[in-house]
Amino acid sequence: MSRSVFVTGGNRGIGLAVAEALAGDGDRVAVGYRSGEPPKGFLGVQCEVTDPNSVSAAFELVAKEQGPVEVLVANAGITRDTLMLRMDDATFDEVVETNLKGVFRTVRTAAGGMLAARRGRIVLLSSALGFLGSPGQTNYAATKTALLGLARSLAWELGPRGVTVNLVAPGIIDTDMTKQLTERRMDGVMKMTPLGRPGTPQEVAAAVRFLASEEASYITGAVLPVGGGIGMGI
Ligand code: NDP
């Protein structure tokens, strides 16, 4: 299989592991990066998801170089943790701009080509802790659970044309993002995790790869948890 894939925030962490997994299957993978250098071996495309012009330019470049996007993995995301009483509007808005509006504008840009092609896969990175609720993360949790409403509405809009939209909800994964957690918080979350350890980016990538595959053709509007059992049953 050689599809045109675009992964936002694909230069490190989970995004990079997803890019590697799909490229390993033979897909043509473009990696969106915001800063620094793109990883070698991929089509590197500058893409700042808070900037509509940057998003449109990125999709145009991907289409020119490897064809219209057939698989979108909306992975770029940030945390700006602090207790709500100390959280100013700018801190809340920054997370909404990236994690929610960034995903919205990326998906909207991808959807046109997928509708025309009558096929496509959209996978959004949500969060198991978002669904559980997480102290200090009102902004982050609000955006990550909002993606469910976005995905399910979109599943209705795009389903008739063979395009699926699903969420992967990781628990604690060993990336730069979770290096910011205090030891106390990490211990607390591990106590809520039956498998008792953080996951790897590759373990998340395996779930994304499945939802992006032909095998997942009858799955849409779903949430696939990859959290070592954290929050199971909710
Ligand atoms: P990292 O912090 O390791 O990487 C985040 C990626 O997103 C980077 O490539 C970063 O680019 C990019 N990014 C951030 N903001 C923007 C922006 N405005 N425009 C474009 N790119 C941007 O995070 P992870 O790999 O850990 O997380 C990936 C996704 O998975 C996120 O959506 C996260 O919320 C989600 N997730 C992660 C969990 C975890 O435990 N790690 C758990 C649950 C969900 P740059 O290098 O320029 O900063």
Automatic annotation (TrEMBL):
EC category name: oxidoreductase
Domain of life: Bacteria
InterPro entries, per database record: KR_dom, NAD(P)-bd_dom_sf, Sc_DH/Rdtase_CS, SDR_fam
EC number of the protein: 1.1.1.100
Keyword field contains Oxidoreductase: yes
Statement: the UniProt record of this protein carries the keyword RNA-binding: no
A Pfam family the protein falls into: adh_short_C2
GO molecular function, one term: 3-oxoacyl-[acyl-carrier-protein] reductase (NADPH) activity
Keywords: Oxidoreductase
Similarity annotation: Belongs to the short-chain dehydrogenases/reductases (SDR) family.
Protein name, entry field: 3-oxoacyl-ACP reductase FabG
Organism field: Nocardiopsis mangrovi
